[in-house]
Fold this protein.
Amino acid sequence: MMRSLSLELFHVCSVDGGYTRSLRNQFPKQRNPPLPIPVLKKRKRLRFTHSSFICSATLAVMADEKKKVFDVESAASLVKELRGSFNAGKTKSYEWRIAQLKGIEKMIDEREKDIIEALHEDLSKPEHEAFVSEISMSKGACKLALKELGHWMKPEKAKTSMTTYPSSAEIVSEPLGVVLVISTWNYPLLLSIDPVIGAIAAGNAVVLKPSEIAPATSTLLSKLLEEYLDNSSIRVVEGAVAETTALLEQKWDKIFYTGSPRVGRIVMAAAAKHLTPVTLELGGKCPVVVDSNVNLQVAARRIIAGKWGCNNGQACIAPDYIITTKDFAPKLIDVLRHELEEFFGKNPIESEDMSRIVSVQQFKRLTRLLDEDEVSDKIIIGGQSDENQLKIAPTILVDVPEDTEIMKEEIFGPLLPILTVENLEESFDVINSKSKPLAAYLFSENKQLQKDFVNNISAGGMLINDTILHLTVSSLPFGGVGESGMGSYHGKFSFDAFSHKKAVLYRGFTGESPARYPPYTPGKLKLLKTLTSGNIVSILLALLGFSKD
Amino acid sequence: MAEIENLEPDLEELRESYRSGKTKEASWRKSQLKGLLTLLKEQEKDIFKALEQDLGKHYAESYRDEVGTLTKSVNLALSSLKDWMSSRKAKLPIAAFPSTAEVFPEPLGLVLIISSWNFPFGLSLEPVIGAIAAGNSVVLKPSELAPASSSLLAKTIPTYLDKKAVKVIEGGAAVGEHLLRCKWDKIFFTGNVRVGRIVMTAAANHLTPVTLELGGKCPAIFDSFSSSWDKEMVIKRVLGGKFGACAGQACIAIDYILVQEGFAPTLLELLRNMTKKMFGENPRETKSMARIINKQHFLRLKNILDDPSVQSCIVHGGGVDEDNLFIEPTILMNPPLKASIMTDEIFGPLLPIITLKKIEDSIEFINSRPKALAIYVFTKNETLKRRIISETSSGSVTFNDAIIQYAADTIPFGGVGESGFGRYHGKFSFDTFTHEKAILRRSLLTEFWFRFPPWNDFKLALTKSAYSFDYFGFLLVLMGLKKNS
């Protein structure tokens, strides 16, 4: 029961992360870790083998491994194979869906250690965080689907005045077909498994493309899904730009993408060729508005937990910047400083309780943000970084100018600017002048301000007096609006994201009005005329043939 | 071109109207819907005239398919508005107390509706109703192929609705392209697959969500009937769903019939007789069937018929009148499946009948083609009904009738696969133009102290117990009696 309330959190997507990077870098360059990072263990397995994909393409011999090239042809034959399974009706049955969901549950249970290890290798993610934000969230989604599936699959009776006439209607959820899930690196397990659960629950065949930026998890997913799930209908394709491009050229029945707006556009444009519907889970600059009437310690802790406690700010719903009043800012900063020290010690760079930055490139991007003129002198907490360990200390800045990069792009890291305003209502203009964020947070006891916040700010989701937690509530849709994406998922919404809602109407053979059919004689016209002057319901019913006269 | 350059101030005015917040007010939405209602009432005669001019639509048909249906939809939106606009509480576990969760419907912003010529009022205003009800500002681009209807919309909408928030922009492909380059918060498109792709590609530039209402070949499966009452009833509905729906120029019109070989002669006989009854011995004189929209479409249909392998399959009608852009109700028996009449959407008064060994073969026939917007099944066989629902995929399935699903508000109207995506009508129209914002409210009182770093095994053990709903274990850990395994 506490699941929804407790610690967990997140979700993620990056602005310039994940797949974006992959598009810039050809994948062979990614084959070795960029720098010797002490916390990394030696790789046990080869990466980027398409272990779950058997392809007939030529084999390219690479330095230390034989790698099968995944090209357009391979992608086409993969889709063809999965479509065969789908068309045979295999994935539609309740039993198949349950068996696969149980497979996922079992996989997470049995391989928890491996998963935690992979997450540590990719991100130095603390075990606690890995457990809370990835393992238990994935398991929770799986358990919910297992419990509710029968209910979700049932056709929904459509209540209609028509039912009193000789007709009835229902809405049938049917699988879309063969779907593609492209996930990202910051929550490499959760953001892969969560949509896959929805796709399976809805009865689709699935291809998952995990992010190559989190190579250990990608490889592990490829291995585990092959081992625990039905390979005739569920596959993993590992890789970077070339592989993704080959995949995007295929005709899918749905593409579910988590990542940056830039790549989101590419995905949607590719989908347009085949009229494929898309769900885009993107990011944005998520604001936190802090009122002066709040319990400061609780608010500060919740902001810290949502920022540095969530993959060190590398989460798409992590607080991106704070807006508070000029008078209150110093108090807020004091408490944040104190609580940060409580959580991560005097030298946070050394803390084991915080993830590292995922890659050198991301590290450089973040330090560049700090190095900008007019930014570097605004740092009041933190600012230290260690390129060898890819660590950046929790860093707080005050009143950074609006036209700096740090205030224009999604930060996606451990930097937190605080903007001060005279009057808290001014925060609405600040937020509305930017793209719509995935989440907007408000800490305030003022009911009127809460109401105005909800009415005047557009965001994917909103959370009052906390951060991140709305993500864990399966009865709430999770998804963006505007630049933060389109479509939503979690709980039943995941099932719906991968379903087509088919309208089914049953008609009987009685109760027919002749006015409905040609020839449109003067008598029928007269009837129509009479009806036009009367009650609209009866007119319609008469026209549609439901009335007795 | 001058007209195109002038668009930007218009769009800025619309954006400003949205930003001002007035379109979000329930009172504004209501007044606009009422304005639409008055428009439909006061302009009824002119609407009929425009439809007669553009499509030769009989006014009974115009009322049935456009004015009447729209009036019903506006009334539904008016009476349901309060309910649609209120946020929906989301369930939370009891342990989450004192938190509350809700889903708050918020308008998307400035939306673009591109409609089609075959139901120039219905397909324009039906989405407009949804967009307004949801609190958006709107640009409607009607089809230039139904010019009288387009200009009537452009003339009347500014007088009945708030012209600062709802605008009609007329024009052809150039205007359409120009509009697609602008940034919208939603694009709602009704039309064909080819343009649908263009619309979605353009939308991708601005990450704009789209609803695509496309078409496709909608099959009608015709099972064998024995009772003559049933036969007459379903034949009427088939013909009403083909020739009676804008002369087959409707995205949900019956495209072709699938029937069991043995029953085909009976079916043909019934269709012939009823066609005569409905449209007379000389259908060219009927006022009860619409004409073809324009010369180009007329020639497209004529070309389909001129294919010798198709020509030889005509078993009823086939006459064309180029001057009046009229094509007789035409029935064909087993035209070649490779001919364009069976590969492309017909969108006109040609009705091919395809015979199958068994009626159940229709499932495979349908599944080997792109997904249709609608499947019609005329049958009393419950097993066949169940099989159609579970073994085929389409926007909708209607049993023993055609077209009327368009008027049902409680089921979604929209396609799947090649027939489009997204849905509307009734509450679904409102949802299509709404962002469902998730809102969670927390109190600042309660807190689990083990939620925060620094992490240790003790906190992890507590967390694990909390996740596995193991309250007993949770207590044990808390009391220091249990170690993390």
